[in-house]
Amino acid sequence: MMTSSKFEVLLLDDEPIVGKRLRPAILKLGCGVEVFESPAKAIKRINEKEFDVVVTDIRMDEIDGIEVLEYVTKKSSRTKVIMITGYAMMELARQAMEKGAFDFIAKPFKPEDLRVVIVKAAEALGVKLTLSHEPQ
User: Fold this and answer.
1) Per 3-state DSSP, what percentage of the chain is helix, strand, and coil (rounded to 5)?
2) Quick one: CA torsion of 41, 101, 115, 28, rounded to 10 degrees?
3) How are beta strands 80-85 and 103-106 bridged, if at all?
4) 4 — alpha (psi -120 to 50), left (phi > 0) or beta?
5) In a 3-state reduction of DSSP, which class is residue 120?
6) Torsions phi, psi of 101, nearest 5?
7) What does residue 134 show for φ and ψ, rounded to 5 degrees?
8) C-alpha distances in angstroms, 69 versus 5, 21, 40, 133, 134?
9) Is the pLDDT at 86 greater than 60, yes or no?
10) pTM recorded for the entire structure
11) pLDDT value at position 4?
């Protein structure tokens, strides 16, 4: 089912620093990465293109991560959704898992932590990504 050879990841977090920090970490896996700070723009892009993995923050102003999750799972059942959650959001993270999220990562976390979860999501889709362990 993979039409392009690249494993495609969409990263959505309304804090610009998160995308800046995580994009290079995801690129190290050899993935294509598109970073969004606006949930509305991310959803528009999800309409245009099928992503293998969507990484989304749960807490955002205009549209929250649970809504993004519901939207993605309706559009593409194969896309794995990874939720980013703050320490106080564990209940929301559980709700997200019940609604079909692949996994969640609690803030603060290291880019390596996200890479490990993306590799697991890729394996669930039958794609082998290799974690390179160079120092950050």
Assistant:
1) 45, 20, 40
2) -40
3) parallel
4) beta
5) helix
6) -65, 145
7) -80, 155
8) 25, 22, 13, 30, 32
9) yes
10) 0.91
11) 47
